[in-house]
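Deliverable D4.2, example record:
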Amino acid sequence: MKRLTLVVAALAVVGLLAYWLLYRERVYLGVHSAGYDLGGLTRSQAVDLLRRQAAPSYAGLPITLRGSGRIWAPTYESLGARLDVEATAEAAYRVGRENPLGMLRALALPLAPAILAPVIAVDPAPFNAYLNRLANDTAVAPTNASVATSGTTTYAVPAQVGQRLDVPALVTRLQATLRAGATASIDLPMTDAAPQISDSNEAAQQALRLAGAPISLVYGDRAWTLKPADLQAMLVYSVDEAGRLTTTLDRNRVQAWVARLSPDIDRPARDGRLRWDAAARRPVATQASQEGLSLDVLASTARILETAQASVRQATPPLAERRVDAVVRRVPPGVDTSRVDQLGIQELVWEETSYFAGSEPGRVRNIQLAASKFDGVVIPAGATFSFNDTVGEISSKTGYDETLIIVDNQTQRGAGGGVCQVSTTVFRAAFWAGLPIAERFAHAYRVSYYEQGNKPLGLEATIFQPAVDLKFKNDTGAPLLMQTSINPANSSLTVRLYGTKPQREVALEGPTVKNRKSPGPPVYQDDPTLAAGQTKQVEWPREGMDIDYYRVIKQGGQQVAREKFTSEYVPTQATFKVGKKA
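Output generated by the structure prediction step:
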C-alpha cells in the first residue's frame, strides 16, 4: 500500500511537471477576459486576439449620462478610454503564477474559470476635455442680486441660485465603470451654484437716496441741475470686502457733466491797457482790466459727490432739490488797472523809431493796423512777450491788405506785408533797453526799409505765423508799457517802452559783414498772361551776406553780457516775366 501511494505521488508530480512545461509560455486553461477565453494562448496570441476582436467593441461601448432633462451618450473612445490589450493579456498570463502555490489554482481553473476584468487605459486629455464640455453644457449660471429702475422707481432684483456639475463625483463613478470595462447609466451629480451677491435691498435703498431728488450746481443766480433720471444713469454698483452690493455715483460721469459747464462760467482774465500821460508823467487806463473766472471742476465734482453721499446716510430718501455751490476760482489779470499807481511805470525806458518811406499804400495800412495792436499793451514784470500772441491773426479776414511779403526766400504778394516793420521796431526797442531776447529771426534777404534813417545793417526781426516769432523777457522788475505812434509826415513808426529804467548801459559792436555772395545774372521767365514782348520785373538783385554784431551790456561800468546776433541774407537775382501771348 505504501508503495502504491508513492507511485501515485510520483505520477502526480510528473503530471504537474508536464502541465507546467506544456503551459510555461501560455495562459492556463480557464482564464477569460474582455469576453474571450484566453486559455492555451501565448501572450502574443492573446494580444493579437484582443486587438482584433475585443478592442473595437470597447471603443464604441457607450455610457449613458442623464441630467437636466437631457441625455449624453459618450463612447469609451470619446472619453479617451481604450482596452489595454498588452496589460489585459499580461494579467491573464499571471493567473496561477502569483506565488509558489499558484500552480494548485491553475489545476482548478478548468473546473472554476477565472473571469478577469479587462484593463482599461484612459488618456487624461480627452477625458478632461469631455468633462469640461459637459460641465459647460449642464451649468446654469447663478444670477446676482441687482438693482433696477423703472421711471423714477428703484427696486431690488432678487438673486437666482444656479447649478453646476459635481465633476469630482462624476469622475469617481466614471472611473469605476471604466475599470470594470462596463457600460452604465449615470445620473449626473449636480450641486447648487450660489450667486456672489445674494441680496440687493441695501443697494436699492442707497440708489433711492442717491437719485431720489435733483442735485443742482449753483453759481450766483444760475443753477445747472442733474435730474433723478440723470443721476440714475450715473449710478455704479460694486461689491465691498464683505461681499455686499453697494451703490455710488460714478465720479468720472459726474466730473464730465461738471466739465461741460465750464464754458457757461469761465471768463478769461483781461489785462488792462494804459497810455502814458506826458503832462502828468504817469500812466492812465484806456481799457479797464477784468478779473477772470475758472470753474474748479474737480472741487465742484467732489462737492456733488459729498452731497449725494450724505443722502445715503439719511433715514429716508431726499424729497427736495439738493443745492451745491460751485467752486469757482478767481483769476487776477496780469495788469490790474485798479493798481496803476503801484505798477512802477514811472519813466521812459527806451524809444525807437523806424522809417518806411516809399511804401505802397497797402503796406502803410498794414503797419498802422499792426502797430495799433501794441499801443497800450503792458508786459508784466518777469513775463515773456510774444509778438505773434499780441498781434493776433494776420490775414485778409482781420483787415490786412495784400502787399509784398517774403515766402520761401522769394518776394510774393500776401496779406500782412509791412507787419515786419513793426516787429523790427519792437525788436530794436527791446534790444537797446537791454531786455533778454528769447527768440528772433532775420529776413531771408536784405530789406531796404529797415536801413532807412542810418540804422545798423542787419538789426531787424521778421515774423511769419505761426512758427516764426519775436520774443523777449521783461527783466526790469516792473511792468513795461508799450506805446506806438505813426508819423505820416516823415513815414515813421515809433515804439516807446515806459516802466522803471534799469541801471544798465547798452552798446553795439559791429556790424561785421562776411561771406558776400553776388546776385548772379538776371532770370527771364515765360508768362502766358503777358502780351508778346511785354516784360515785367518781379524781383530785384540783392547781394547775399552774413552779418554779425554784438550787444554789450554794462552795469556800474562793468560788462555783464556780450551777446552775438547774426543775420544771414541770401542773394536774389533780378527776375523778369516775359510775355509770350500772341
